[in-house]
């Protein structure tokens, strides 16, 4: 793909993380960006069928409208409507216009995309991706920007012939109210291939590097790895500890660590169990990782987590890809994980209560 060639990108899931990457991608002049807002579609479509940045366009902003990104690193930007007809009829948009349409489902667009960026919550790994069928061709590349391990498998099972880029997100972002995204200083993306043995390696690497160049042009920080799985497992070790514990105790991370003399040793054992599972899966995990992650968390102040926020808001939580997959792989490989299994059982009960409450709405 030539450096000057237009790139069609579909971003699936417009929560806090999806909105952050929409902001980054729209700042690249080569990107023609379409977003699919899922649970927050009604709020998004009311305010932002199309986007542009006030910093780039220098257009006066009515602060009561649009999606606002308030970023410690990038400043404050608001995305506002531009071409409403592109929302309702994306096929009518002019080919020479940088259209950034908001859709309810990919089936509303007749286009195929160069990159499909999946930033939706990994709640239903198989079912949630079914609407992507109309948007994917054999030339498409799927980019997974989600928490968890094993996330690539449902995509590979459904689309055996495509390139898959696996991404690890270290971005602190929240959506305190519809249309408002707050981004803290935490910002790094790690990318690597989930290799497809039926495709030429050089072709897959060119697709990986081309996508990385889009994010770089948008002004974010990233690293590309030959083997991304150790990075995915490191993030899941982080999430298993902090997401699970903050959700169950309703404390921020450092309050938990200071709560008793047993808190840090317990956290170290918990992380050690997940590290043992990763190593049994053939994934290289560096020595001293647990202590390093604890030290990192202690330096972050009042650290609350996305799973904790989901529980407080009564939203389903990403239990399976963060805890369930390591538990099940540990059982398959004969790795004992009592701390991990205890958290998994308790969080499934909490999630079940949320599901029952949602079913009664």
Automatic annotation (TrEMBL):
InterPro entries, per the entry: 6-PGluconate_DH-like_C_sf (IPR008927), 6PGD_dom2 (IPR013328), ApbA (IPR003710), KPA_reductase (IPR013752), KPR-Related (IPR051402), KPR_N (IPR013332), NAD(P)-bd_dom_sf (IPR036291)
Domain Ketopantoate reductase C-terminal, first and last residues per copy? 227-350
Question: Alphabetically, which GO biological process terms does the record hold?
Answer: pantothenate biosynthetic process
Residue spans crossing the bilayer? 6-24
Q: Which GO terms describe its cellular component?
A: cytoplasm
Q: Does the keyword NADP apply?
A: yes
Question: What is the name of the protein in this document?
Answer: 2-dehydropantoate 2-reductase
Protein family: Belongs to the ketopantoate reductase family.
Q: What GO molecular functions are on record for this protein?
A: 2-dehydropantoate 2-reductase activity
């Amino acid at each position: 793909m030539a450096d000057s060639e237009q790139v069609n990108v579909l971003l699936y899931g417009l929560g806090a993380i999806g909105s952050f990457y929409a902001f980054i991608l729209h700042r690249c002049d080569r990107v023609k960006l379409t977003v699919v807002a899922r649970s927050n579609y009604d709020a998004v479509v009311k305010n932002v069928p199309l986007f542009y940045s006030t910093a780039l366009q220098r257009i006066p902003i009515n602060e009561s409208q649009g999606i606002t990104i308030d970023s410690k690193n990038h400043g404050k930007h608001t995305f506002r409507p531009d071409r409403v007809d592109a929302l309702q009829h994306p096929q009518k948009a002019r080919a020479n216009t940088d259209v950034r349409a908001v859709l309810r489902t990919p089936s509303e667009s007749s286009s195929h995309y160069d990159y499909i960026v999946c930033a939706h919550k990994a709640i239903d790994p198989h079912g949630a991706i079914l609407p992507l069928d109309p948007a994917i061709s054999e030339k498409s590349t799927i980019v997974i920007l989600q928490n968890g391990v094993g996330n690539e498998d449902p995509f590979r099972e459904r689309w055996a012939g495509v390139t898959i880029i696996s991404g690890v997100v270290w971005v602190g972002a929240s959506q305190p109210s519809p249309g408002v995204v707050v981004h803290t200083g935490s910002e790094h993306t790690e990318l690597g291939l989930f290799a497809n043995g039926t495709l030429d390696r050089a072709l897959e690497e060119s697709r990986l590097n081309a996508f990385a160049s889009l994010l770089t042009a948008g002004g974010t920080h990233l690293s590309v790895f030959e083997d991304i799985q150790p990075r995915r497992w490191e993030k899941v070790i982080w999430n298993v500890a902090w997401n699970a514990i903050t959700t169950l105790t309703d404390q921020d991370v450092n309050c938990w660590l200071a709560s008793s003399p047993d808190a840090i040793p317990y956290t170290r054992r918990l992380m050690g169990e997940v590290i043992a599972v990763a190593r049994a899966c053939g994934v290289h995990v560096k020595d001293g990782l647990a202590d390093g992650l604890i030290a990192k968390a202690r330096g972050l102040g009042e650290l609350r987590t996305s799973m904790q926020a989901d529980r407080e808001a009564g939203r389903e939580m990403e239990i399976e890809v963060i805890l369930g997959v390591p538990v099940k792989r540990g059982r398959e490989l004969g790795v004992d994980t009592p701390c991990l299994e205890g958290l998994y059982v308790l969080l499934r009960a909490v999630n079940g209560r949320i599901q029952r409450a949602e079913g009664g709405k």
